Structure formats: structure tokens, C-alpha cells
Amino acid sequence: MKNRILLVLVLFFVLGSAMVSSMDSLSQTFKSVYFAIAMTVLIVVGLLSLYKYFRKTKH
Predict the structure, then answer these.
(1) What string of DSSP letters covers 28-56?
(2) Where are the bilayer-spanning segments (predicted)?
């Protein structure tokens, strides 16, 4: 269940970034805010996954 939520979150931000960048009707400010939020969330998800991986392999 947790992996499914994580997959939906990643797909939302990755596919959303492609969609937002192709829309000319959105303001540049909105695009920048969306990209910043997407990058932050994806970096946090990646760091948490790395932390869990290294924590699991240590024990």
C-alpha cells in the first residue's frame, strides 16, 4: 500500500512537470512554484528511500 502511494506521488510530480511546462496559458510564477515543490518532494522521497535502504543493510 505504501509503495502504491509513493508511486502515485512520484508520477504526479514527474508527469505533472511535463504537463505544466508544455502549457503556455500558465504564468511563469506558477510554473516555478510547481517545479520547486516537485523537486523538493522528489528529493525528500529519494533521501528517505536511501536512508531506509542503508538502515536495512546495516542490520
Answers:
(1) HHHHHHHHHHHHHHHHHHHHHHHHHHHHH
(2) 32-54
The residues, ordered by sequence, that sit 6+ positions from 10 with a Cβ below 8 Å of its Cβ are 42, 45
Nine cell digits for residue 35: 517545479
Query: Does the model's pTM come out above 0.90?
Result: no
CA angle 45, 11, 42 (to 5 degrees): 25
Q: What is the pLDDT of residues 17-35, one digit of tens each?
A: 999 999 999 999 999 999 9
By residue count, the chain amounts to 59
